[in-house]
Amino acid sequence: MGAFSEAKYAKMELRGQQYTRHWKTDLKGATCSSPGFCCVAAFCSCCVSYHLRKRQLRGDMSRYICCNGDWPCSGRCGEQSAPEMCLCLEVSCCFAQSVASTRWAIQDEMHLQNTQCDNCIIGTMIAAQYLACICWLAACISGNDVLQDLAQLTDMIADILWCSVCACMQTQHKVQLDERDSNPNIVVAPYAAPAPQAMHGGGGYPPQQPPPYGAYAAPPPQSGMAYGAPPPQLLPLPPGPVAFPRRQLELNFAVLQLRSGYEAVDDLDCIPMNEFQKKFWKLRQAEWEPYTLLYSPLRITQGNVADPLYFDFINCFQAATAGLVMRQGLQEFEEYSEETETMGTVRRDPSLADNALLPGLFFEREGERLYRGLVEGFRGQQYGGPPPAKPGASTEELLTGVQQILDIYVANGYALKASLTPGSSGSSGSGRPTLSPVDGTSAASAGSSFTVKLEGPANLWSLQALAARRSNLFNQHDAAAVAAYLRASGRSSTCRLAWSDTGVVQQWTLV
């Protein structure tokens, strides 16, 4: 099975097993929900399909991709130069696919599951089309008049089913989009469609010197967390494109990385998540066009998180949005609850009242989710992550587990190569400060150290872009997972990041 087929199958499986919400109205009730629109959809089906796709895109045709990226040729048909014309051609020449693509996009956006009745109705419509086709083939081959009459009858039945079900389906889409526009809380974070989602392309910014470092510290057991951001400095130029090919990520693995970050923000109770989603969406929409120009003429499929270019992009602006909201984190707010379908009051834990603690806590909680996914699996995918080392384990045993985590990241496309080198603690010779353990001991006396080098990681551009923005959050997924593994093994650690145009270096100290 090719990469495209695997991604498409994963999306279908996700809709079938992971989406738990239901449409505002099912197909059998759609006509009563909006009878006037249903009549228009029956007689002007192509126009309605055009209208609904544009509405699903919130009127932003720069996001349009032929058939919503569901075909191998999608994104290669000149859509960006004339999206309205391409959408007209899609709804006219591939009407059935245009309706299906809009339906899947709405499902991905709001995590909607078909009812069994909906699936039965849609399946009956498709089966009738196949039956009509088989009857026509049999009539053509045999030349039998009875089969000719039967073929005409089944064709008429299939056409009646087709017109009526498509009209009901498009009415169902319209009702759901009305609900989305009136209640933004039902929109789910943008990863579940992978959640399929995408990245950008090149050539706008001049080259620059390696950007400044970001640093994270993992907390010792039962204590707070030290987290260091880059010191004040002049803003560097925005980064240029990554100038070499990187590997495709395994789809579920990419979703695990992004989903862990989203859930870590939710855990911190510093902003209503519907507000976070809106800020995230606005920021990445504002940055999408410059990013695609950066990598031009390469085509980046928006929504395809398995693409390292899109993953880099979406990871950057997830971290950028999270860093911004943490600076002004709320202590109490109203938030929509999916379980009760009501608004409720959320109060942050008083021990986390200081917003300056949030970036470090984000790193810790994201790491816990990532490590759990590596050990226990994620969405049916097993990664074989190392269990925590036994109490009192030697440094060599700990580093064996660290290497296993790095191997998992490489095997799933996160980096081209990862190497681990044991070494003594101390200065790397770069002259940059090293984050000290939270207990106040110096890095030189803290304990064993090791260095991790990643070549061509999937977040290479995002680290440089976040540094250019003076972000207080640098999202290094493998480091978060390693720190969580070390904590689970009873050891705290500090990690100092540095990066170049080709890779990332992590200098670790075990406490």
From TrEMBL:
> Which parts of the sequence are annotated with region: Disordered?
421-440
Q: Which domain of life is it from?
A: Eukaryota
Q: What is this protein called?
A: Uncharacterized protein
Organism of derivation: Chlorella sorokiniana
